[in-house]
Design a protein that fits this description.
Blueprint: H1 22-39, E1 55-57, E2 69-71, E3 80-81, E4 84-85, H2 91-100, H3 103-119, H4 123-131, H5 140-156, H6 160-167, H7 178-194, H8 198-209, H9 214-228, H10 233-245, H11 252-263, H12 267-280, E5 304-309, H13 316-332, E6 340-345, H14 353-362, E7 367-372, H15 374-381, E8 390-393, E9 405-407, H16 412-425, E10 430-436, H17 439-455, E11 458-465, H18 473-480, H19 482-496, E12 512-516, H20 519-534, E13 539-541, H21 552-555, E14 562-565, H22 567-570, H23 579-587, H24 592-595, H25 632-645, H26 649-654, E15 660-661, E16 666-669, E17 675-678, E18 680-685, E19 688-691, H27 692-697
Helix pairs in contact: 2-3, 3-4, 3-5, 4-5, 5-6, 5-7, 6-7, 7-8, 8-9, 8-10, 10-11, 11-12, 13-25, 16-17, 18-20
């Protein structure tokens, strides 16, 4: 919808400017101000997706061949009803005209006004217009239109159960167009998801899928895929049964669950699995484009890749780890046409980056990787696009975006955004943030906040903690407001003159905590959080929470904390048992499965007759790189996958559905050129790292 522009002119009309008299607009503005004052204390609103204009067509019941058509989300600018023009640019104007119009016209005007307010996400004003029509006689077409409007309004106001009550009767109404039914099912699924009814939300999305055009279908199927990733194994079984009970096609849910497992596999494993999936689920609606079509993605050829890395600088260790990963990937590439690689040590002065870049151009490079870090990247770009296709090791600012510029990094923003999406999909809505008082902590917290609010959640508390003390008890008590509970007990005891039996209680107005800190801080703070009555509070974090080292003794206090990281870091590989060991176990009457090392849990308690645990050391994880079990391993993995991404970058950027599924992580490219690493979700159990999607889906351990 176009914004309404009002200009009051004295002495004449401006050319081409829509104008109203100042007097009439004064009354309109007063009415608008009054509505703002009335609704100013209303609940927080949630934006709704898919606000395109939808047409609801009434089934022909008159027998005269005429079909009545109205718009549920605004009217055409020049549409006429009963000889009167309806201008959709201002829902306020429509509302004022409805007050003075005959009943039939007033009904249409109020429906149009409510739809207009929905477009600008003024849900309270839309509700006011809808309430006028509750006791008014409505034709069946108008009743359905009002039901859809009221369902969307209730969803926007956070009244999810009410939204479901309005929308449920409309989801299968044959008199609605496919577009309108698709909108009903979308809002219905959002409401169900907000109530943590993930199975019902998926059923709604399954029904919606068959109503959509191909482009919109891809977006809907991406919703399905993301939601499937959050299901537990029990919920997957329930989904299969619920789909059957709702009359959906046989094996629809089974096919989706199997497709989700394939989507999370690396590219080199997916091709075979996808062929098998097509054989098992012919004519299934899931489209290969969801996998990014990475299996057959065309590769762009380059002859000379130049690396610009600050090896002799304070960031030398990070640069060296990235370089080692890049060169290892290069060494493993058997393509006879692979490019040559040159290294330029750009030192510690960001101002010299452009000089080294020009040197690479003169030497004949046709692709550049680097520099590392925001300061050097800003110095290189300096208001002008790069001369060659370039992959910088930093996030690209919007003002630097260019068709041949790409960015990849370990910055916290993209990870925090995905943490917000994961927590929201898990059913949480009220979040508290506990962040380190550092620039990194502020960046992570701000990114989480923006994403969380956009999803429709609310931030209840946002507190910081310093990095210079060991005892955080007072700060935590302030975050959880346990100190206020203690103060109330003291006042009450003093008033009554008796000592009360008392257990301090934390505030209960948030249902999850985003922790923006590092592994050392988490080991100090998480146990104290749980000590102060937060033992049942779900805690989420970025990869910064995991040092890479497998140390159950110090990480046991982090049990159940959920964090996102690259596959390379959290897919822990343990040695396979020797065949002779399995044969010996079988000859002793034991199963081979009992002798297999347990990847992510401690051994069962030993009986009295068994040897002491010290004589049976637990298997140690296998190192994947020289930097394994340290934070630098992420830089190594970044270098490894950067080499593989170079020939795929342009195609990935052209098609938003393309995905790269590498050995270290899954990735896609945003329109601004930034590479988004799709996180894997993990937790701690008895101090061991657990991959959640594997545990929740009963996915077999590929390493055993």
């Amino acid at each position: 919808m176009k914004p309404l522009v009002v200009t009051c002119l004295v002495g004449g009309m401006g050319n081409g400017v829509k104008s109203k008299s100042c007097a009439s607009w004064q009354s309109l503005i007063l009415l608008a101000v009054g509505a703002v004052l009335i609704t100013g204390c209303g609940p927080a609103v949630r934006p709704l997706p898919d606000s395109s204009t939808i047409i609801v067509q009434e089934a022909n019941t008159s027998g005269d061949g005429d079909t009545s058509t109205v718009l549920t989300q605004g009217l055409d600018p020049e549409q006429e009803f009963q000889g009167q023009q309806i201008d959709s640019e201002s829902p306020w104007e429509l509302a004022i005209r409805a007050d003075q119009a005959p009943t039939d016209l007033a009904t249409e005007l109020r429906l149009a006004a409510a739809a207009g307010f929905l477009e600008i996400q003024d849900y309270t004003a839309a509700e006011t217009q809808a309430n006028y029509l509750v006791d008014v006689y409505l034709e069946p077409r108008q009743q359905r239109q009002l039901g859809l409007l009221r369902g969307r309004i209730a969803q926007g106001l956070g009244q999810y159960q009410t939204a479901i009550q309005f929308l449920q009767p409309l989801r299968g109404d044959p008199s609605l167009t496919n577009e309108s039914r698709a909108l009903v099912l979308l809002v219905l699924s959002d409401a169900q998801l907000s109530l943590n009814r993930r199975i019902d939300a998926l059923i709604s999305l399954f029904r919606r899928d068959v109503l959509l055009e191909l482009d919109n279908q891809l977006t809907n199927q991406q919703r399905i895929l993301n939601l499937l990733r959050s299901l537990t194994s029990l919920e997957q079984s329930l989904l299969q049964q619920t789909a059957t009970n709702n009359g959906l096609p046989a094996n629809l849910a089974d096919g989706w669950i199997a497709f989700r497992l394939i989507a999370d596999l690396p590219d080199y494993e997916r091709s075979t699995q996808l062929l098998s999936w097509h054989s098992s689920f012919p004519n299934h609606p899931a489209r290969d484009q969801l996998l990014g079509a990475g299996i057959s993605i065309p590769l762009e050829q380059f002859n000379h890749v130049a690396l610009l890395l600050p090896l002799t600088s304070p960031y030398g260790n990070a640069a060296q780890a990235f370089y080692d990963g890049f060169i290892d990937a290069y060494s493993q590439d058997n393509n006879v046409y692979k490019p040559s690689v040159s290294l330029h040590d750009i030192g510690e002065d960001p101002g010299l980056t452009s000089f080294y870049y020009q040197s690479a151009v003169i030497e004949g490079a046709d692709f550049v990787v680097g520099p590392l870090g925001k300061a050097a990247t800003n110095s290189l770009l300096n208001g002008k696009p790069p001369a060659l296709p370039t992959l910088v090791l930093a996030d690209i600012n919007p003002e630097h975006s260019a068709p041949n510029l790409y960015g990849i990094s370990l910055s916290p923003e993209f990870e925090a955004m995905q943490v917000a999406q994961r927590a929201f999909n898990d059913g949480h809505r009220q979040a508290a943030i506990f962040r380190s008082a550092t620039t990194w902590g502020d960046r992570a917290a701000n990114a989480f906040t923006d994403a969380w609010l956009e999803l429709g959640g609310s931030i209840v508390s946002n507190k910081s903690f310093p990095d210079t003390i060991e005892d955080y008890s007072r700060i935590i008590q302030k975050l959880l407001e346990v100190n206020q509970s203690v103060s109330r007990e003291r006042v009450l005891s003093a008033q009554l003159g008796v000592n009360l039996e008392f257990t301090p209680r934390r505030r209960d107005d948030f249902d999850m905590l985003f922790f923006a800190g590092n592994a050392r801080q988490a080991r100090l703070l998480v146990p104290q959080l749980r000590y102060f009555q937060a033992h049942d509070l779900p805690i989420y974090a970025t990869s910064n929470i995991f040092s890479g080292a497998i140390n159950p003794a110090v990480d046991a206090d982090l049990d159940k904390l959920v964090f996102g990281d690259m596959r390379w870091m959290v897919e822990i590989i343990y040695p396979q048992p020797e065949l002779s060991q399995i044969a010996e176990a079988d000859s002793n009457g034991e199963t081979g499965a009992q002798e297999l090392p347990v990847t992510n849990s401690d051994n069962d308690e030993q009986s009295i007759n068994e040897e002491p645990a010290a004589s049976k050391p637990k298997p140690q994880p296998i190192a994947k790189s020289p930097y394994s079990f340290s934070p630098l391993d992420r830089l190594y993995a970044l270098g490894l996958e950067s080499y593989h991404l170079i020939p795929r970058l342009s195609v990935l950027r052209e098609d938003p559905w393309q995905r790269y599924n590498g050995q270290a992580f899954r990735a896609s490219i945003r329109e601004d050129g930034n590479i988004l690493r799709h996180l894997e979700w993990a937790s701690f159990e008895k101090g061991q790292v657990i991959l959640l999607n594997r545990r929740e889906s009963n996915q077999p351990d590929l390493n055993q």
